[in-house]
Structure formats: structure tokens, C-alpha cells
């Protein structure tokens, strides 16, 4: 498929695509759009950043524009992703469109959403909790929904939205088109798809659980007490916008605060912040007013910041799948990017899980770590789980099959790195 015109999309949509600079469909769009237009249910997977939003939004909007009454509901796991999808949907509809799209997410004034709903939007995008709130209040009806999109379904289930999705679906007609997208396909997704999809077409761009080939990987073995110093070192030697993933809400705040004290424009993003604050920080990051964003996994799914060059895993995720989503924030839409992982001895097992997920056919083995600091030696001797890890894994793992470097950090903790200092006291 050479370009969008061959797809027979409506004129208004072709005009919007031109304006957005989308000349030809990405591979996932080329596969999904004709099937969705045909009316098929879909179970889709694609590497992050491949144009997945357009893959469902373009054909669904085409149907909505071409009819007087068709409606769509798009459910996403996070508020940020919902906002991003709303923005793509509005761009696709075009400024002069009479068709309204509403965003129903938690953390925002319900009154504003109620007045939006009174204007009878034909496309609703939102997170499960707030959508369900509106259904319970009676301010939202879903009887006329013809198209349901479940975006990042694996994440929604991970976040415990399974029951709410079931409840929301009870408000919808049996007869509808359902499109389910998921980066990974664990058993619970397959079960859900059997329950809700009718004879779905399964499409997949790239092998499951693989990443953009344009990501260069670097693994740095270090100690928890040296991570902050190492972060500074990495920020200094890299250019462009950087997303840093930390384990807890508290640590995102702490690292951001320390970076600011060290003269680096940084902000923290986590689920404890008010929605208005979350929006403000995301806006500053998108507009390059802050260079470094420290986030929890709230930012690991679907976020699209085209100028994001590096993803640093300050702490590894507890769930290996999240790693794929995290580093998929870079190298989007054919760009290149870098993923850096700080791996402390206590995180060796997490790294092993990630490596096994990304390279299922390889031999996975870590040799005992030779560590120079006395603190590490103590930890090694008394290692709680009996595991210790080498500076050089025996097998050079090839995460994502792209270029990868493994090294040890020799960064020394500085006095003023509170986060690191406090941790080391434990
Ligand atoms: P997504 O995976 O939907 O988040 O999209 C990733 C990036 O690809 C976004 O910046 C989109 O604007 C861009 N994109 C999506 N579809 C196309 C297309 N057909 N041509 C060019 N860029 C696209």
C-alpha cells in the first residue's frame, strides 16, 4: 500500500492526514485499516511507536464521518495516554468538524465533562474508572456505541481494570466492532479476547515482545548508592530530552528535587500528583522547558514525545513487560534512541527476567559479580536470595537485538546526594 489515498478514506480525513504530515500508512496501519473498514474485530500487536493510534483511529473516524449516528468508545489505561489519543483524534477530525470527541479521565473536574457530554460527542476517549463513574451517574450512555477500542489492554489488566472493563462492556450493545490492542499477549489477554472478540483477525507488526531495532542499549552494573551520581554522569554526557524511570512516587520526587538543586531542569511525574500538575509537567517536557522527566511506570505506556532521545532505567521495573514499554518511549516513528539500565546487585533477577523475555531462545546465566566496594562485598556475602551477579554477564545478552554495551559504574557517591545516602543507611 503506497499511500492513504488507495484506502478510499473520506476526503476530510485525507485532508487531515496531509496536514499531519502522514504521507503513507505505517505497517500496522497498512494491516489494520482495511480490516477495520471491512468491519472485522481485531486483536493487534505492534512495537511501540509504530503508529498504533492511527491504526485504529483513522478507520474508526472514517466510519463515523461517513455516517450520521455511529459512535466509538476508546478506553486507555492512563490519563496521559487518553489525552494523547484525544489529540490525535481531534487532529484527524479536523478543526471544522461538527463531530465532537470527549475525554473522560479521573483527576479532572466532572462538571466540565458533564457539559462536554451534553454536546453529544460521538467519540469518547477515557480511562476505565471515570467512564464507569459516568455510566453509574447516568451521564453517559453506551447503547449507540458501534466501535469499541481497548488500547494497551495488557496494561489495563495489570493495573487491575479487568473488572471495570467487564462492567463497562455490560452497558454496550452485543452488536459492535471490538478492536483490542496489546503489546504483549499473556494468558489473561487471550482469555479476554475470546470473551469479547468475534472471530478476530490477529495482526502483529514485529514479533511479540520485540523492540525497535533503532534502540541502542547500555547496561551499567552499579550499586544503589552510586545510582544518583551515575545519573548525573549520564545526563552530562548525553544531549536532548531524557526520561528516567524510578521505582516509587517518592523517589521520582526526590531525584527531581536533587537534580534541580544540581542545576538540571527536571520534573517528576507520578500518580500522586493532581491531574493539572501532571498535565503541566508533561507540557513542559513536550515543549522542552524541562530536559529530564523522572517518572514511575505511569509514563511507560503509549507516551509519544518525538524528541525523546534517551530512556534511563534508574530502577528496573518489577514486571519485565514494563521494560519494553518504558524503552519504547524512545526511537519512535523510525527515529533512533538509547536505553540505559542501571542494574544493582539486588536487581540482577529483574534484569534476568527482562533478558529472558526479550531473548527467549538464548541461554540466560549470570556469573558471580566481582565488586570492589566493601559494602558490596558485605552484601554479596550476606546476599538474601543467595544470588550475586557479575560485572560481565557470561553471555552477552542482546536485548532488542540492537547494539548493546554492558559495563560497570565507577561513579563515587557525592556528599549531597540525599537519595543515595539515605538508601545506603538501610
Ligand atoms: P503511536 O505509535 O500511535 O504513538 O505513533 C508514534 C508516532 O508516529 C507519532 O508521533 C505519530 O504522530 C507518528 N505517526 C503515526 N502514523 C504515522 C504515519 N502514517 N506517518 C508518519 N508518522 C506517523
What does this protein look like?
This protein has 426 residues and is of the alpha/beta class. It folds into two domains: 202 residues, P-loop containing nucleotide triphosphate hydrolases (Rossmann fold, 3-Layer(aba) Sandwich); 211 residues, 3-Layer(aba) Sandwich (Rossmann fold), CATH 3.40.50.300. Helix content is 39%, strand content 17%. It has 16 helices and 14 strands. The strands form two sheets. A seven-stranded parallel β-sheet has the order 3-4-2-5-6-1-7, sandwiched between helices. It has a seven-stranded parallel β-sheet with strand order 10-11-9-12-13-8-14, with helices on both faces. The structure holds adenosine monophosphate.
Q: What is the string of SSEs from the N terminus onward?
A: HHEHEHEHEHEHHEHEEHEHEHEEHEHHEH
Structural class, judged by helices and strands?
Answer: alpha/beta
CATH architecture of the largest domain: 3-Layer(aba) Sandwich
Q: Quote the beta fraction.
A: 15-25%
Radius of gyration (CA) equals 23 Å
Question: Number of DSSP helices?
Answer: 16
Strand order of the largest sheet: 3-4-2-5-6-1-7
Number of strands: 14
Give a quick account of the main beta sheet: strands, pairing sense, barrel closure: 7 strands, parallel
Shape: globular
CATH class of the largest domain: Alpha Beta
CATH superfamily of the largest domain: P-loop containing nucleotide triphosphate hydrolases
Looking at CATH, which topology of the largest domain would you report?
Answer: Rossmann fold
Bound molecules: adenosine monophosphate
Counting structural domains, the number is 2
- How widely separated are the two ends? 59 Å
